[in-house]
Every structure is written in structure tokens, then in C-alpha cells.
Amino acid sequence: MTTNYHTQRVASELEEPVREANELARKLGLEPYPVNYWIVDNDEMNQLIAYDGFQERYPHWRWGMKFDRQQKTNQFIGGKAFELVNNDDPSNAFLQESNSLADQKAVITHVEAHADFFANNRWFGLFTGDAPGSSPKAAAMLARHAKTIEAAIADPDVERSEVERWIDNVLCIEDVIDQHSAFVYQRVSEDDPDREDIEAALEGLGISEAVRREVFDEKWVERQREGGSMESFPETPDPDLLAFLREHGKQYDTEAERAREMEPWQREVLDALRTESYYFAPQRMTKVMNEGWAAYWESMMMGEEGFADDDEFIDYADHQARVLGSPGLNPYKLGKELWEYIENTENRREVVDKLLRVEGVTWRNFHDTVDLELVRELLEPRTPLAEVTRNRLDELASLGDAVDHDALERARAGEIDVDRYPWKVLTYEGLAERHYSLVKPQNGGVLRRITQADLERIGRYVLDDTLYGSVEEAIADVDRTAGWRRMAEVRASHNDVTFIDEFLTQEFVDRHDYFTYEYAHATGDYRATSTDATDVKKKLLLQFTNFGKPTIEVHDGNFGNRNELLLGHRYNGVALDIEQAKQTLVRVFELWGRPVNLMTIRKEVSEKDVEVARRRNREPKPTEQGILIRYDGMEFETSELDGDRVAAIEASDIDYDTKPEEWLA
């Protein structure tokens, strides 16, 4: 990392913001990994981005390609990476030395929230395990993998191009793993029981070594292994293709024109890259949640809690507006909006639950009997919490568990600057009241938007419905931490798919103006199609399920009783790019060593159908045909797939088409 004077000065300036941001994050209920902060220049940042956030990776041409692309993006398109943080314990965060102080403070708060997410989301725990104190130890792991591959390249008996080709093969299918299961380094023993059984039988025959070498040579033993079983395996489709290839794959010997066992270095490389795929999978599975979580808490700390000084706030607001306003599917914006929606709806549920226990209030008459303006006024934070200053310290003393009384005494003694850091004298409960979401101006309509259906649903669980004699009594009993606690529960258990599936509701879609659009074959352009939450959810889930990539599974490792590999594309209405699929089969062939097959469904629209549909002002209906693509190392063969195999790969309950029946009429 850079060690010049300017960098040292920047690092010195950030010591206090780093310390205070971590303390504030913990006051707000976050539990981040410890974070090491590094100051880097632009070239170093581009290298780290190319290396996926780490300082040491295995030698391969793709890092240079990614570095060049990042450099050209900065140069010709504009924009820069303000920070980069990796999932490790401790985490490592890299900050651009060219950032303004306002930007540095913003990214530090952002990083603390990321480190909390890494440490507490269960999907990251699938890699590290659930044991207390378990850690990804990612930097050390990636450094070991780098040395493993460097050793293979340095081997005089192995060509560098051969190693790179092998890496390329694996990287083509790096995402074809079982991302929803805990990582297991090796699923089976490296021993080969079939070979041991054959060799044991030969020894039992009592034949001479000369006869054994002449008649029962290595090729004969291999043929017995390959042809000795009529069984298909696995019993159920296996989503972890990399593990299956590690267990049963071979390399193809072009000179001998036959499969042979992988070399030790090939298995080691496959193991290393599969391990890395499992390590990086949770980050891809939680992109919206993680970035939204970080954006939410960054905004809370920098804006609402005043971590940005008065002279820094405008720069910070501009910085976040540009991030949240980036075009396309923006994970920061979508994620932050969903987190705010979860907070608001949970706080609303808590308030309504209390109000339905007021004498005379039911879910049927709620809107007629409850003065929601009064409720909003009663929910406002108590004045000493909203305006913490040195002059109000005595008023805080009477606020019970909302105040950190030890810190309050230190503030009275002048040890804490409460005008600069007011949060230091408050507890989690006090901060929750101070930043209660339902009284913020942008959330003024949340209580009014509750529907009769929601009121009825909450009312079903109100058994003791006369706890309070007045609205004032009920609001005084509201738990102001409900929203944040619900957010923490969701942060711990969900990934992007479940997050969007559960919380993207019609209320959310209407509030934020989401809609779907489709390509119209008849008109040759894109048209808005739906504002229904179900349709919006379909389109978003398509982009996040399986990282937005086709789902491929192993269906048979002994297809046709010829030791051929049979893969199946789990068809969801979105067809494969057949040419790309064929290129990938070439790579898989080199990892399997024998012919490979792929089942999929081809979706086609003929020019005639398009023309007829255009004249009738409607969309053509595509034809779907199940096909089997086979590659034997020399050529491709495509044949029709029988009905049973089509049924095995098609999804009957998922359809990502959101076009209404008469959408062009």
C-alpha cells in the first residue's frame, strides 16, 4: 500500500472518524467485525477491484483484463470507487486517498455497516460454519490458493498455458455450486473403492506379474471401471457441478484420445477455485440487502445523527444522491427503500397493535375513531432526546433507560463533547426514540396507508383488547425499537431472493413507482406492461435467483451406460443462448474427459408468426421444444428430448412473462 507523506497525513486525519464511527455503529445495535482501514491511490484501488478486494490472488490473465477495464471505465466513463471492503475477520477496507474528508467519513460509516452484515448474516455463515468465533480467514485462504497455483505453474513438467486453460475451464462454471448448502471442502474420500476392488480381485487370482501386465494392464482396469456399472447417479439432480467433477471427472488426453485421471495439481486447482466460489457466493446472493443495509446506516449516521459536520453535509448529501440516483437496477436504492419499508411497517404494526387494545377501538372502526395526527404528535421523541446539548444534560437524567447514565456523568464532567457527539450519552433505546421512523416527514402517510385487511390481520392476535383507557396510554407503551429489531432479524436470516419475495408488496411498488416492461416482437420496441407487485417481483427474482444465471444440475454421470455426463437446464421460461451453451460444454468436456450432454428447452418465434401477430396487433406465441445437445470432443449433435426428460427440467410454477393478454390492443 502507498506509504507517502500525503497518505500518512490522510490516515492520521481519519483516526478519530474511524474510532467514533465504530462506537456509534455499536450504539445503534450493529455488531461489526473489527475493520483494518487502508489508504490507497487510484491505481492500487483499481488493482484491488480487479482482485475482488484482496491484495493477493493466484496468477491468471483475467486480473489484468479486469484492471484494464476498471482503469478505462474511470478514464472514459467517469466515476470512481470511494471504498472497497472484504468479508473477513478482521475485515479490510480500502479508502481512496483522493476522497474528501466528507467522503471518507461517509465510506467509513458505510464500511462499518457492511462489516456488521458480514458478521451476522447466516448465508455468510454457510461458508464459515456456525461455531462461535468462526471466521472466513479469507485473505490467508486466497494467499494459500495463490501459492498452490504458482507451484503448478512453476512445475517444469507442466506448461503454464495448460494451467491457465484448466483455470479457464473451471471459471466457466464457477457459479454452478449448491449455494444454499453449507460449504463442504470434499464431499467424498479421495480413495477410489471401485479400483481397489478390481485390483484386490486380480491379486486373488494368483497370476504372475508378467501375465497381469500383459493381459490386465491399466487400460483393462480402466475399462472395467467405466463399464462395470449399469446404475445412473446421482439419485437426484446435483446442483454442485464443480464437486461432481472433482469426484468423478477426468482429463481428456488428446494424444491417447481417451480419458485419464486428473493430475494432482488439477484436483488442487479445482478444489481451490470451488472453495473460492463458495466464499464469494454469499456476497452475490445478498447484494441488494447488503448495499441497502450499508446505505441505510450510512444515512442514519452521517445525516440524522450528524456524523457529517455542518460544512461537510452538502458534499455528503451530493455524494449519496449520486449513488442512490445511479441508473439501471440500483442495489443501493432498492435495498435502502426495502429496509426503510421494513422499519416503517414493523413500527406501524407495533403502534396499531397498541391502539387496537384501547377501549372502544376495533379493526373495523379504527380509521373512524383514532386521530392519527394526535398519534403522530404523541410519537415524537421527547425534547431532551431530540435536542441533546450541554445545556440540557440535567433534563436527560430523568429519561430512564433511554440514557447512558455513566456517559452522562462523564459529559457533565466535560469528558464528552455532547454538542459534537450527542449520541454518546444515549442508549440503543434512546437512539431508537430519537430517530423513530413514523415521525419523519417523508413517512407522514405510513399510518394512514394501513388497509382494512392489515388491520384485521393484526386484530386477530389482539386477545386482551381493553388494556388501555386512552390513546395516550397506548402510545406511551409503544416499543420504539420494534423497527430496528425487525431489521436485525431480517438481516440475520434472508438473502436477496427471500428478501424481495417477502417484502416487495403492492404498497411498496405503488409508493416507489416500480413497473415491468417487455420486448414487443410485433412492434420491435419495449413497452410498460404491469405495475402489479407480483409481476414486478417476478422480474426482480429472475435477476437474483442463481445470481441471474441459468440453473444447471447434474442429472446422470453414467448417461446411456456410457459414462457420459448428462446436465439439465432448469427451464423457467427463459431460454439459453445455445451458442454460449455449446462453448461451455466444450469446457466441461475437458473437466469430464468423456462426452457431455445438456438438456434444455429451445424457445423460438418465427418471422411468419411475428408478421401475423403484427397484423393482428398482438404478440406472437413462441414454440418450445425440448432438445439434447451432445458434445464428444469433436462435434456437436442436437436431438429431440423425450417427454419424460422435458418434464424433468421444466418448471411448471414459474413464469417470468408479465405481458397481459391484450397488451398491444
Task: Identify the strand order in the major beta sheet.
Answer: 8-9-10-11-12
Percent of residues in β-strands? 5-15%
- Report the helical percentage: 40-55%
Distance between the termini: 62 Å
Structural class, please?
A: alpha+beta
Q: Number of DSSP helices?
A: 31
**Spatial extent as radius of gyration:** 30 Å
* Overall pLDDT: 90
Biggest pleated-sheet summary? 5 strands, mixed
The total beta strand count reads 12
Q: Based on Cα principal axes, name the global outline.
A: globular
Assembly state (oligomeric): single chain
As residue ranges, the low-confidence spans are 189-193
Please explain how this structure is put together:
By secondary structure, this protein is α+β, with helices and mostly antiparallel strands. The chain is 51% helix and 10% strand. It has a five-stranded mixed β-sheet with strand order 8-9-10-11-12, sandwiched between helices. It has a three-stranded mixed β-sheet with strand order 1-3-2. A two-stranded antiparallel sheet has the order 4-5. α6 (122-128) runs antiparallel to α13, α14 packs antiparallel against α15 and α14 (287-304) packs across α16 (331-355). The longest helix is centred in the middle third of the chain and has 25 residues, at 331-355. Residues 189-193 have low confidence and may be disordered.
